[in-house]
Amino acid sequence: MTDRQIMTGDEIRRAIIRISHEIVEKQAGTKGLALVGIQRRGVPLAKRVADAIEEHEGVRLPTGALDITFYRDDLSLVAQQPIVKGTDLPFDLNGTTIVLVDDVLYTGRTIRCAMDALIDFGRPRAIRLAVLIDRGHRELPIRADHVGKNVPTSREEIVHVHVAEIDGSDEVSIARELRAPDTTVVGG
Amino acid sequence: MTTVAPAASGAGTDAVAWHHRHLIDVDVLTWPEIELIMRTTEQMKGILARPIRKVPALNGRRVTTLFYEASTRTRVSFESAARNLSADVVSVAPATSSVTKGESLVDTIRTLEALGAEILVMRHSVSGAPYLAAEIFSGHVLNGGDGWHAHPTQALLDLYTMRENVPGGDLRGKKVAIVGDILHSRVARSNIWSLTAAGADLWLCGPATLLRGFDRWASAWSGGAVPGHGKFNVTSDIDAALRDADVVMGLRIQRERMQGGLLPSLREYAAMYQLNAERISLARPEAIVMHPGPMNEGVEIAPDIAISGRSVILDQVSNGVAVRMALLYLLAGSHEAAQPGHEGAHIETAR
């Protein structure tokens, strides 16, 4: 297996800043906006987007974390249960525009679970999606509103997103692995 | 709104895999596995605090409860837990089933399996009955109490409730006194495994007739022959058991299991061993009082103690739902990882 770098730390930083501008532009301001990162790597990315928006708009958006483990539709397919990381939504979702933040958009199943989970907490006015990497191969009618980088991939490839908060450094790389793609879920 | 912080303790438990197809007693659990259950329970408590107390984790999975002994809280708790995870629940009461026509346990289980049961929660008056069930049932068996032998979900909810109430959530060196009818108690037996594994300073206390055999178990234990790092103490001296205790747990005097001569009378038991205000004052000021229920108020516990500020008895009940959600979730996902030979080997040795 060989790793090929597709984004440097600096490129990740610029992509986050661009996404942060797009989010504000689409909403025509910051009113009613909230960010929710999907466990695990979506959580630090959501915080970075919030930091960037605070820098150029001077407003701190409410930011939460969402664990979708109990909403997965593949409990009977995975070899063992994923470890639950915790959900923390310290604000009222009703009437807000939620921007879901995740590292990789792949089949779309993670996002479907995330929407189910969010709706159990309240009724957002709208749900949008921001991802660092869109690698294609959707299995559900889901698309991202804000994308850091579109990366054409084959199903045999695996996208690794590293963020400093969890992995010690910022980098996105792509690897070809011989294992069945179903057993390794990076994003979804 | 709802905040569920990931459990602070248990660094490194990310790597813990769940391998058990059945859960019949806590004796087969390693400490990291117990920590995994505690962490999963924490998440389940978070779900119970939400406006919609339901997640689709076990959507469409079939959970059957088969209770050969009377139960309110355990059966209702399991059924609520299963429903909170979106499972379909079938409740079998043997008193109104073909069991009254003479159907054997084995036949009943085969029939329930043919009817689609995937997870079987069972309670039986015969110790070891769930091991037999696990041999013939192709799904998962979760023990809701068998005879005097084991009540794993009670021990785990007790452990969770203690950790919630003990500063720092660490039971190492904390004195836990279990007082009452130890002899007939599957709760006490399962708690011995989990509390010694947690490193608690465990004391079992009751009249000598209701402690028979436990002193030998305790002395074999301190020899290090059995898993778990702590040892435990057995005494009939209630003052010694309660002095400076951090946790005091009363056990029900099981009148239905009392054969002649074990107790002179309930009045005499209450006079000697009842958990009342005077006796509880021997424990630490911040000590908590627990009871697995159902209580004989005025026998093993004074009514004012059961509802005092120290009592966490209702916390035990509500934590029970979360613990059972965690176990149903962990067991339901374990079938791919299950190695039939592995669990089978345990069944051979355990019976």
Describe the model.
The complex is a heterodimer of chains A (188) and B (351). Chain A is of the alpha/beta class. Chain A has a single domain (8-155), classed as Rossmann fold (3-Layer(aba) Sandwich), CATH 3.40.50.2020. Chain A is 27% helix and 27% strand. Chain A is built from four helices and eight strands, in the order E-H-E-H-E-E-H-E-E-E-H-E. In chain A, helix 2 links the parallel strand 2 (33-38) and strand 3 (63-66). In chain A, helix 1 (9-27) crosses helix 2. The longest helix of chain A is centred in the first third of the chain and has 19 residues, at 9-27. In chain B, helix 1 (31-48) packs across helix 12, helix 2 crosses helix 12 (313-332) and helix 5 (152-165) packs across helix 6 (186-197). The relative contact order of chain B is 0.15. Chain B has 351 residues and is of the alpha/beta class. Chain B folds into two domains: 18-151 and 317-350, Aspartate/ornithine carbamoyltransferase (Rossmann fold, 3-Layer(aba) Sandwich), CATH 3.40.50; 152-316, Aspartate/ornithine carbamoyltransferase (Rossmann fold). Mean pLDDT of chain B is 87; it is low at 1-13, 223-227 and 336-351. Chain B is globular, with a radius of gyration of 20 Å. Chain B contains 13 helices and nine strands. Chain B has helices spanning 31-48, 73-84, 105-114, 129-136, 152-165, 186-197, 214-222, 238-242, 266-273, 277-280, 303-306, 313-332, 340-350; strands spanning 62-67, 88-92, 119-124, 140-146, 175-179, 201-205, 232-235, 247-250, 288-290. Chains A and B meet through loops of A and helix 1 and helix 12 of B.
